């Protein structure tokens, strides 16, 4: 074997040995859903930087559920989920000892929850009429994701803390296929696709 051929073989072997699975993603406690749709959101809270990796920057509707149907890695682009300024100085609204953030951007349900998690909060849970009235006044012109989803095993709507809805606050219509998440608009809660893009509401206690 010539010296030149040996060099080529060594080069090819080094490429094969260094190849990594492009869909190996890590996840944190607030982003379990993202692993199934190929989305990773590395976060550096100290620098106020929140980044996300999504299947293209055009939108997330119809994101594939398995890695077998995922597009080629080069179709993934890294863009900001929120600006640095928004993370460092978010526009929180105070009500009854809690703080609420009404997003200006739009995301799918899973990404919305991950952004809330990066801000030390979670998607809002509706507990009483005063809170519902407060949300009514803040959501008159658009749909906002909330922390309510339809769970197949129990076949019921549950909040993200595993509690059931209160009939005097939220009454959901019969479950519709592919509408497993909930949105609020002008105080009315309705089912929606978890993959469509909507605003969202984060909720946290303390400052």
TrEMBL record:
InterPro entries: C-type_lectin-like, C-type_lectin-like/link_sf, CLEC5A, CTDL_fold, NKR-like_CTLD. It is found in: Membrane. It comes from the Eukaryota. One of its GO terms (molecular function) is carbohydrate binding. Residues 95-203 form the C-type lectin domain. It is a single-pass membrane protein. The keyword Membrane does not apply. Keywords: Lectin. CDD domains: CLECT_NK_receptors_like (cd03593). Its main location: membrane. The keyword Ligase does not apply. It holds the Pfam family Lectin_C. GO terms for cellular component: membrane. PANTHER family: C-TYPE LECTIN DOMAIN FAMILY 5 MEMBER A. This is C-type lectin domain-containing protein. It comes from Sphenodon punctatus (Tuatara).
